[in-house]
């Protein structure tokens, strides 16, 4: 997703893993998006993902919000879902794919279904349909669900009725499954008594009960994602095992407007991904447009085109920013109050302690941060941020870490980040002063950890990106100097800082910055004592910079190939895989 003003792209919204199908404004909060990945997201206008709503099992076609704060979504999974604060509070089943859902001003919901009908759903008893109409709808819904139900891999509606038991069996023990109401029931032929003995209700096996994928309102055995490459969007390829694989390939290529010379690649792709190993390839095909024959493995290809000639990587490039959002809120507050009491009882530091109103305000701040499910709607005041900055500026370095932790979490709060940005915009020197204060020797591990994680979290809001770019060199240098003697958690946080910087500097095409990050990441990657997670993030930063940045040749000159080879030989799977990615890039 991109936000535009005129011809200028203001923000890129990164998070969905598939096509974004629908958008809607949510007043005072941001933008809602519905995606083929089955999720709904709420975004700040600044580009930050505030909330993800997960519950649909297929494509989400549309999303809409109401002034009450409720959100409604429509999906290919034949349901409309109503959401409150990111939680699904109701799911309304439909007899078909739901193409669209919208709120009316009074809070009622109108839906458009693939059965050709528009329906209005209400909570007002005066508007509810009469019992006969409700009964008719329930019957239609039941009939539709029965038509989709599968028993032992077969559609329930395709099973014969009880009259099939009037036909004698042909051998003792022969089984037959018939439809009884909404169930499939198995019978066995008793040759001695010449009757069908009831065995029992058929229960789906592990695979039979799996929900079949749906595309454009139709169920298939498979729906594949096909990457054509060359910046083309991912295409959806539906397939049923009962279909002729060549006919499927031909129809799909024609529907997608792709060359029929791709035919054999598509056929082999389908066969490979459906486990059909004993399939005889058709070598008699002639492209009606070019006259060329089918590609046969082992033969030279004639006029064949690769679906994607671009190499694929498992772990690079990194997209989006990482953050540290886990916290022990009660422990943080307890430690701050403990330190405050120490300041209060010491005559020399008594003036630095919090007053009772300030203590109450601090409690309210932590309470707001603790309620993470309402980050999109809760508010801070300017006085809240002023109090935090005052404590960060005046409290002794030895007592800073729990206050920095509150700052770290405030950065992730939409309104808190906005207020903090205003203060930084007017005077960002206090933030750099805080970093120096927290990292000045002998820096405590707690100060190092909380401060670097606070910096990492700044990347989540694009408002802070200019600050991070402006002070990039000194921020990286100060934490790099503390890295060697730091504990595992600090090392991981520093590696995360480098990874976030790599993403930002690639976006800004900053070669000097990329070079600095590359150098620091290479040091971590070469360190045999560093933990797996830190090394992994450093390697991803290196690979991302080589792939999307301007420093590939510099990395090669610094012998990144040997680092890649060493990583590839690692016993840790993800280290080995990203090592293979970098090795492929180095060729």
TrEMBL record:
Gene Ontology MF term list: ubiquitin binding
Pfam hit, one: WD40
GO CC field: cytoplasm; nucleus
UniProt record, GO biological process: proteasome-mediated ubiquitin-dependent protein catabolic process; ubiquitin recycling
Ranges of the WD repeats in the UniProt entry: 13-53, 53-84
Subcellular localization: Cytoplasm
Record-linked Gene3D superfamilies: Leucine-rich Repeat Variant, PFU (PLAA family ubiquitin binding), C-terminal domain, YVTN repeat-like/Quinoprotein amine dehydrogenase
Domain PUL: 314-585
Keyword tags: Cytoplasm, Repeat, WD repeat
SUPFAM superfamilies for this protein: WD40 repeat-like
Domain PFU: 188-284
InterPro entries: ARM-like (IPR011989), PFU (IPR015155), PFU_sf (IPR038122), PUL_dom (IPR013535), WD40/YVTN_repeat-like_dom_sf (IPR015943), WD40_repeat_dom_sf (IPR036322), WD40_rpt (IPR001680)
PANTHER family (UniProt xref): PHOSPHOLIPASE A-2-ACTIVATING PROTEIN (PTHR19849)
Listed name of the protein: Phospholipase A-2-activating protein
Organism: Kalanchoe fedtschenkoi (Lavender scallops)
């Amino acid at each position: 997703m991109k936000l535009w003003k005129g011809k200028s792209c203001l923000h890129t919204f990164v998070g969905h893993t598939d096509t974004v199908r629908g958008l809607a404004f949510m007043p005072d909060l941001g933008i809602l998006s519905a995606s083929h990945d089955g999720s709904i997201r709420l975004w700040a206008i600044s580009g930050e993902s505030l909330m993800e709503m997960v519950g649909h099992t297929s494509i989400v076609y549309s999303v809409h919000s109401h002034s009450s704060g409720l959100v409604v979504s429509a999906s290919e999974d034949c349901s409309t879902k109503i959401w409150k604060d990111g939680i699904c509070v109701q799911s309304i089943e439909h007899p078909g794919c739901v193409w669209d859902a919208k709120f009316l001003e009074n809070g009622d919901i109108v839906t458009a279904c693939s059965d050709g009908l528009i329906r209005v759903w209400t909570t007002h008893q005066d508007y509810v349909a009469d019992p006969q109409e409700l009964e008719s709808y329930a019957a239609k819904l039941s009939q539709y669900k029965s038509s989709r139900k599968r028993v032992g891999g077969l559609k329930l509606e395709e099973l014969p009725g009880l009259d099939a038991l009037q036909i004698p069996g042909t051998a003792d023990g022969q089984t037959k499954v018939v439809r009884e109401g909404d169930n499939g029931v198995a019978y066995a032929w008793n040759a001695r008594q010449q009757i069908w003995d009831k065995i029992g209700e058929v229960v789906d096996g592990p695979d039979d009960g799996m929900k079949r994928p749906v595309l454009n309102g139709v169920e298939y055995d498979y729906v594949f994602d096909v990457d054509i490459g060359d910046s083309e969007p991912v295409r959806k390829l539906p397939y049923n095992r009962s279909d002729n694989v060549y006919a499927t390939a031909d129809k799909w290529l024609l529907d997608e407007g792709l060359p029929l010379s791709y035919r054999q690649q598509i056929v082999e792709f389908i066969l490979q991904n459906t486990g059909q190993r004993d399939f005889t390839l058709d070598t008699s095909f002639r492209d009606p447009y070019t006259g060329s024959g089918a590609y046969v493995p082992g033969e030279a290809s004639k006029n064949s085109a690769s679906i994607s000639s671009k190499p694929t990587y498992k772990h690079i490039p990194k997209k989006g920013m990482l953050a540290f959002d886990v916290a022990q809120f009660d422990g943080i507050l307890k430690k701050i109050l403990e330190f405050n009491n120490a300041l209060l009882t010491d005559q020399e530091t008594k003036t630095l302690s919090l007053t009772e109103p300030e203590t109450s305000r601090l409690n309210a701040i932590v309470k707001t941060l603790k309620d993470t499910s309402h980050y999109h709607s809760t508010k801070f005041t300017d006085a809240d941020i002023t109090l935090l900055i005052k404590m960060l500026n005046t409290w002794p370095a030895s007592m800073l870490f729990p206050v920095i932790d509150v700052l770290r979490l405030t950065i992730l709060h939409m309104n808190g980040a906005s207020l903090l940005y205003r203060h930084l915009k007017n005077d960002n020197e206090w933030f750099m002063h805080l970093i120096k204060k927290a990292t000045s020797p002998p820096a405590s591990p707690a100060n190092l950890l909380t401060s670097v994680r606070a910096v990492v979290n700044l990347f989540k809001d694009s408002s802070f990106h200019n600050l991070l770019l402006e002070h990039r060199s000194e921020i990286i240098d100060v934490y790099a100097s503390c890295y060697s003697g730091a504990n595992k958690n600090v090392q991981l946080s520093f590696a995360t800082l480098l990874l976030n910087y790599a993403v930002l500097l690639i976006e800004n095409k900053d070669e000097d910055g990329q070079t600095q990050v590359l150098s620091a990441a290479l040091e971590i990657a070469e360190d045999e004592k560093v933990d797996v997670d830190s090394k992994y993030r450093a390697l991803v930063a290196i690979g991302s910079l080589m792939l999307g940045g301007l420093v590939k040749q510099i990395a090669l000159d610094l012998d990144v190939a040997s680092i890649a080879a060493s990583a590839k030989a690692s016993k840790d799977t993800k280290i080995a895989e990203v090592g293979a990615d970098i090795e492929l890039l180095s060729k």
